[in-house]
Amino acid sequence: MNTITPCLWFDDQGEEAAEFYTSIFPNSRIVEIGRYTDTGPGEPGSVMVVAFELDGRPFTALNGGPLFTFSEAVSLQVPCGSQEEVDHYWDALVEGGEPSQCGWLKDRFGFSWQVFPTRLLELIKSPDRAQAARVNAAMMQMQKIDLAEIERVAATTADAPA
């Protein structure tokens, strides 16, 4: 079976988006650019599709016009091993975009990303349900995830103030 490849629909910024994304993630590159011909529907010679890789995974950017736009219903997750990674990816992706909550953000193209430390998921899945609830409540108050604060809240006991 061939690899399943996400296709991101842009108005006309597919090449710009692919260049932006590949500049942020390691092991990333633009593979190929396809252009519209005189049969359209785009302007002949303008970029139609961009095949690119993010951390070795294939993606396609399609310049399909303004008919469709992104929503939070589809996002890409960026699990991080440290606060430094969270800071790197969050800060790069949110530049020109907008932060949301719980590690979510929209980039400058309106595409949604979830940037979070993997430790957060471990704590939310904890068999200690009180700890998991405290961590979840703390996460709900954050935009960019602050791992030190998450760890502090996780270590708080029932008789200590959060």
C-alpha geometry: elongated
Question: Major sheet, described briefly?
Answer: 4 strands, mixed
Distance between the termini: 50 Å
CATH superfamily grouping of the largest domain: 2,3-Dihydroxybiphenyl 1,2-Dioxygenase, domain 1
Would you identify the regions where 5 or more consecutive residues have pLDDT less than 50?
none
Number of helices: 5
Strand arrangement, major sheet: 1-4-3-2
The topology string of helices and strands comes to: EHEEEEHEEEHHH
Beta-strand level of the residues, as a percent range? 25-35%
- How much helical structure, as a percent, in the residues? 25-40%
Specify Rg, calculated over alpha carbons.
Answer: 19 Å
Nearest-integer average pLDDT: 95
The CATH architecture term of the largest domain is: Roll
Number of domains: 2
The structural class is alpha/beta
The CATH class of the largest domain turns out to be Alpha Beta
Number of strands: 8
Entry keywords:
162 residues, alpha/beta, Signal recognition particle alu RNA binding heterodimer, srp9/1, 2 domains, 4-stranded mixed β-sheet
Provide a compact summary of the structure:
The protein is of the alpha/beta class. It is built from 5 helices and 8 strands. The model has no long low-confidence stretch (mean pLDDT 95).
Please write out the topology.
Layout: E1 7-10, H1 14-24, E2 29-35, E3 47-54, E4 57-63, E5 75-80, H2 83-94, E6 98-99, E7 104-106, E8 112-117, H3 118-124, H4 129-140, H5 147-155
Parallel strand pairs: 1-4, 5-8
Antiparallel strand pairs: 2-3, 3-4, 6-7, 7-8
